[in-house]
Amino acid sequence: MNVNYMLLKQFLVVAECGNITKAAKKLYLTQPTLSKSMRTLEMEIGIPLFKRNGKSISLTHYGREMAEKIADKFKEIDSSIAQLQGTYHITEGTVNISATPHLAATYLPKVLKSFQSLFPEIKFYIRECASMHVIDDVLEGISDIGFCVEFASISKEDFRILESEFLYGKDIESLDCAHILTEELCFICHPDSIYAKKKVITGQDLVEAPLILYNRYTGTRSVLHRNGKGYEITKDANYVIYRVSNETTIISMVKAGLGCGIISKTSQLDTSGVICKQMVRPEEYRKSYLIWDKTRTISNLVLTFKDYILNS
């Protein structure tokens, strides 16, 4: 059914005024013209909207119900139009972002390039830090949005430590997130390592290899803790010889022959000089997320950028 938009708008004014004469003045129409429009609307939808008693009218039960429902719909339409107008007129401003070094180096550049082709005057301030610091930045309002490795999988024991030592009891329930990327993890070693000749890396290899792993503030560490319990690859044992905060450092240390590491298989970082091996068990996948504080009001600019990422 196609109902004339202007008839519905006029009906809302009549319902608000409760009187055809008052509504006609407000709409800059003659009373007969508005009365005819209301009869046309009733005919189009086939529902009696008014009770007529001489010159006075009042809404029927159906009229009151219709007025309530379409009033809400018009509010949604007005809000959507205002949002689009705000987006269209965005010409400048700054988006503050916190992101893990890996996502800042491999994921964000393409996103920023395509977004700035639409909004060339928009500037970005990017702070690189570990996933838990990304979370804290968003909760504190230091950054508008964050890009981090999954944090929901972190062990209860570790989270208690982080909550007391770093997050200070902040409520992460105020965070909302959207999945943006899934990456397979792989084992890397120096070409001269005994593991370079192996076809695949087993769980036992992970136990015995001298590992360079992520520190406890990184989301990847929580992924390894969750999936690698059978091999205890995240505990403070002698074979975990270094704990660092990013993949660039892991790759550099492996290149120097200081040990073996676990990084993203699809990493766009320079992996020349190291050998990448598939892990038989546990098969590791790392998910990354866009996060924001759903309790905090964000600007049209940030909302536009967030929606652009979610719809890309």
Describe the structure.
The protein has helices spanning 5-17, 20-27, 31-45, 61-88, 101-106, 108-118, 131-140, 156-167, 203-208, 219-227, 247-255, 300-311, and strands at residues 50-53, 56-59, 93-99, 122-128, 145-149, 175-189, 200-201, 211-214, 240-244, 260-264, 275-279, 285-293. The chain has 312 residues and is α/β, with parallel strands linked by helices. Strands 3, 4, 5, 6, 7, 8, 9, 10, 11 and 12 form a ten-stranded mixed sheet that branches. The chain has a two-stranded antiparallel ribbon with strand order 1-2. It is elongated, with a radius of gyration of 30 Å.
List keywords for this structure.
312 residues, alpha/beta, ten-stranded mixed β-sheet, two-stranded antiparallel ribbon, 12 helices, 12 strands, elongated
Task: Determine the number of helices (DSSP H or I, runs of at least 4 residues).
Answer: 12
Order of helices and strands: HHHEEHEHHEHEHEEHEHEHEEEH
Helix content percent band? 40-55%
What portion of the residues fall into strands of 2 or more residues? 15-25%
Distance between the termini: 34 Å
Q: Structural class from helices and strands?
A: alpha/beta
Task: Give the averaged pLDDT, no decimals.
Answer: 80
Largest sheet: 10 strands, mixed
Gross morphology = elongated
Please give the radius of gyration in angstroms: 30 Å
Please give the number of β-strands.
Answer: 12
Parts with pLDDT < 50 across at least 5 consecutive residues = 152-169, 234-238
